Amino acid sequence: MSYFKILGFQKEPFSTSPDPEFFYLSKEHEVSLNNILIELRLKRGLSVILGDVGTGKTSLSRKLIQELKQRNDFIFHMILDPSFENEYSLLVSLAKNFEIAGNRIDTSLSVVDLKESLERFLFQKGVSEEKTVVLVIDEAQKLNDASLEALRVLLNYETNEFKLLQLVLLGQLELHSKILSIPNFFDRISFKYTLNPLGFEETKEMIEFRMRQAGYTSSMYLFLDEAIREIHQYTRGYPRQIMMLCHRALKALVLKNKFAVDLRLVRELIEDEVRTGWHRKDLLLQKNSY
Questions:
Q1: pLDDT tens, 258-287?
Q2: Worst-scoring range by mean pLDDT, 24-28, 31-35, 96-100, 205-209?
Q3: Would you say the C-alpha torsion 165, 116, 140, 98 has a positive or negative sign?
Q4: How many CA atoms lie within 13 A of 276 on its CB side?
Q5: In whole angstroms, how large is the CA radius of gyration of the chain?
Q6: Which of 91, 78, 90 is nearest to 118 (CA)?
Q7: Helix or strand or coil: residue 208?
Q8: φ, ψ at 192 (rounded to 5°)
Q9: Is 113 helix (H, G, I), strand (E, B) or coil?
Q10: Which residues make beta-bridge pairs with 171?
């Protein structure tokens, strides 16, 4: 039997897979999601979400896709790894995934041909069919200058009233410097936001939320406040690190036949991680500062 079922869960509560049903909407995630949806409805073009590793950008993108699936007037595609060699490979990818020309792209087409095909597609969907075409790009810091320039050109396709392509970029902090180096791309950003780690109260709420989503109904607290505070301090409030430490804590709870995750248990896990060298150096520095 899985450890989480022994504890009264129906599902694993602290999986790091980006399941929208387990995505805790912190205040910052909620602000960013609501603003992106507003930008998409108004067809304003470009939204950029920045955040350090593990702040929930990918989970946010999955939540956004879930929202778009509920709306019949949206056509959307998501790129998970935008490591395109050049402008041509990006345009071919977009043409295939938006099923332009029946998903069969003539390899003899030039960059100009592909841009013209995409422009016709965007005009047909956006104007004739009154649809909203959305492109979501995760790990957007991997976009090279040629790809960013190609996206800038696509953002130029517009009517007198709205942009024909709605572009959402989610990337690590280095994306900021890339965009700043391209002023005519930066100037097109309609909404920009940076996700920060969670505070203590939101860390506690996220842990409780994920346990409820996983089917935990007992009135007994599995995580004592002192343990949550230690988890928050060690992880600095980064959601992915919180989930990984909570997962290890619940496993240890079962193996040690204890009733609740307390301060001592969490400290033992942290000390073991540090002792064996499987810790992030920046987290250790934070730990040593308090």
A1: 999 999 999 999 999 888 876 666 654 444
A2: 96-100
A3: positive
A4: 7
A5: 22
A6: 91
A7: helix
A8: -135, 140
A9: helix
A10: 50
Q: Could you read off the pLDDT of 85-136 as tens digits, one per residue? A: 999 999 999 999 898 865 566 667 889 999 999 999 999 999 999 999 999 9
- List C-alpha distances in Å: 154 to 151, 162, 186: 5, 13, 14
CATH architecture under which domain 27-195 falls: 3-Layer(aba) Sandwich (3.40)
Domain 198-287 has CATH 1.10.8.60: yes
What would the two tokens of residue 40 be? Answer: 């998409």
**133, β-bridge pairs:** 75, 165
Contacts of 11 (CB under 8 A, 6+ apart): 4, 213, 214, 215
pLDDT mean over 43-48: 97
The residues near 208 (Cβ < 8 Å, ≥ 6 apart) are none
pLDDT digits (tens, 9 = 90+) for 142-165: 999 999 999 999 999 999 999 999
Residue boundaries of the structural domains of the chain: 27-195, 198-287
